[in-house]
Amino acid sequence: MQPTLPPPTYIEVETSEERIDLKFHEKVDREKSQILINGKEWDQDWIDIHLSQTFELEFILKDEQDQLLEQGVQTITGDRSAPQLILPVQDYLYINRSTSLPYSILDTDLKECAIYIDDVLYENDELIVEPEMKTVRWHLKDQAGNESSKILEIRPLIFPDYKQTGNNVSITQQEDLEILKNGNTIKEETTTLENGINSFTLRSKHLLEEVEWINLSYDPIPLDASIDWENDRLFVQTSQTPRSFQVKINERVYSDMLSIPLPATTESQEFDIQIEIIDMDGNTWTSSQRLLILPLEQRPTIPEPIVQETPQSEYLPIVKEDSIEKPKIAPLVLTPPSVQKPKIPQKLLEIPNKTAPKQEILFFDQKMERIEDGDGAQTLRVRLPYKEGKEIKNVKWNDQVIQKEDIQYDTINSTYIEVKAKKAKNTIKVTYDDDKTTEVVSKNLILRKPTWKEQVQAAFESFFTWFRTWTNWGK
Question: With contact defined as beta carbons under 8 Å apart, do 12 and 23 qualify?
Fold first, then answer.
C-alpha cells in the first residue's frame, strides 16, 4: 500500500523588507489562473511592501487543461513600521540664542511630515528655534498609513552661578550640565585657576554643541623675600603677608620665624639661605640668597674715656655706641624669586600710546606720579583698563562697591576713580561683560607704613598749610 502524500503547495508567499514575491507550482498555468491583490488584478510583478499595512490575496489556480488546482484567500503582512524621527537630543533642548535644529527621518516611503511649534504649524524649510519657545512637535505618516509623533521641549539655557576668590572658583553644579575648565571636566564644586586665562565651557546631552561660558584670569602677585643681619640675628621680610614660609640656612630649617639667631664668631661665616614662601592662594615662591658675616676680630673696639684726677673745664669726648662702626656684611646677591606654581611671566617694556586708553590698572598719587608697591600715599587715582567691546559692570575698591557716578574720564578718555588708600594691602577688582562673557581684572597695591621722618614732615606740612590759611583769613 502506497503512503498518502500531502497535496502539493501550488502558491507560496515570500516577503522581505522591501517586497513581496509570489511563487507557483509547475502545474499552475498563470495565464488561466486568477489572482487579486486587495481586490485588484495582480500585474504579475513583485509587490511593494510599503504600499499597505496588510495585503489580501485571492486566488483561483488552474492547470493547462483548465482544471482547478486550488482556490482560497490569504492575508499577507505588509509595512507595519512607523516612521522614526532622529534628533541630536532627547526630551528637551537647552538653547541661549536663535538656533537651527537638525533632524532626520528614518523611513523610505514618508508621505507626510508636519511640524508644530507651540501647537502652531511651522511651514519654513529650515527649523529655527528660539529660547522663548516651549515645544516642537513632529507628526509623521508613511505611504502604508503608519503614523508617529515626537515632542521636544525647549528650555532656555541658564548658566551656573560662580564666585571667584583669588585662584579659587566656587561653581554651583547642575545635574544635566557638564562643566569644563580648559577642556577638562570639573566634578567638584570648587576648582583652582591656572595662571593666565582659564576658559570655562558647558557640555550636555541636552545641548547641540559645547557652549562657551566664561573666561577667568588669574595673575598672582609674586612674593619677594629679603634678609638683614644685625646684632647677631637674621631678620626676614616679605613683600606680602604669606600663609606660611620656611628659611633654610645651611641645611637647617626654620619655619615661620622672622627673627633667627645667627651670632658672629671669631671666624668668617658664609651662609647659603633659601626661603620658600606659600602665599594666601597656595602658590609657592622661592628665593636663594648668600650671606657673609665677618669675624669678631674685625669689629672696632669702643675707646675708653680718659680719666683725669683734676676736673677740667671741658668734658672729654665720649664715643657713643651709635657712632661705632658695626661689623661689615658682605653685599647680598639676591636672586629674583622663582615661582613653582604658577610661573612668573616675563615683563615686557611697553611704550605707552598717549592717545589710546591704557590696557592695565595703574596707580597715581595726587601729583599724578606713578605709584608702585612699597610707595606711600593717602589719596590715589586709579586708572582703569580699556577692554575692546566690553563695558564696566562694577568696580570694587577693598571690597567696597564704587558707584557709577564716581567713575570719571581724563583728557585721553581713560576711565579712573579716586580713592583713599589703606596702610597695608589694597585691592581693586573691575568686572567687564558683554553679551557672552564676563571678565574680572584685579590688582593689589601694597603701601608701606610711612617712616617717622615722613610722618613728622607730613605733620609740619599740614600745620603750615593750616597756618597760612588762618593768616590769610585774618587779613
Answer: yes
How far is C-alpha 329 from the geometric centre of its chain's CA atoms? 49
Query: Does residue 145 come out as left (phi exceeding 0), alpha (psi in the -120 to 50 range) or beta?
Result: left
Extract the C-alpha cell encoding 384: 582703569
Burial class (CB in 10 A: 0-12, 13-18, 19+), 127: middle
DSSP-derived secondary structure for 380-436: EEEEPPP-TT-EEEEEEETTEEEPGGG-EE-TTS-EEEEEE--SSEEEEEEEEE-SS
SS3 8: coil
Contact 143, 109 (CB under 8 A): yes
Q: What is the pLDDT of residues 64-98, one digit of tens each?
A: 999 999 999 999 999 999 999 999 999 999 999 99
Round to whole Å and give the CA distance between 156 and 471.
Answer: 70
**Distant-in-sequence, close-in-space partners of 98: CB < 8 Å, separation ≥ 6:** 128, 129, 130
136/129 Cα distance (integer angstroms): 8
The three grid cell numbers given for residue 442, joined into one nine-digit string? 584685579
Q: pLDDT tens digit string along 7-30?
A: 788 899 999 888 999 999 899 998
Classified as helix, coil or strand, 150 is strand
Contact 47, 68 (CB under 8 A): no
Bond preceding residue 342 cis, omega within 30 of 0: yes
Q: Is 374 left (phi over 0), alpha (psi -120 to 50) or beta?
A: left
Cα–Cα distance measured from residue 463 to residue 443, given in angstroms and rounded to the nearest whole number: 35
Question: Which H or E element spans position 459?
Answer: helix 452-474
Q: Which residue has the cell 619677594?
A: 224
What is the rounded CA–CA span in Å between residue 288 and residue 250?
12
CB–CB of 210/231 below 8 Å? no
pTM for the model stands at 0.51
Q: Dump pLDDT digits (tens) for 400-429.
A: 888 877 888 876 667 888 888 876 788 888
Compute CA 285 distance to the chain's CA centroid, rounded to the nearest angstrom: 24
Q: What is the CA radius of gyration of the chain?
A: 45
Distance (Å, whole) CA 289 – CA 271: 8
Among 337, 349, 371, residue whose Cα is nearest residue 443: 371
The predicted-structure confidence for 222-236, as pLDDT tens digits, reads as follows: 888 888 888 889 999
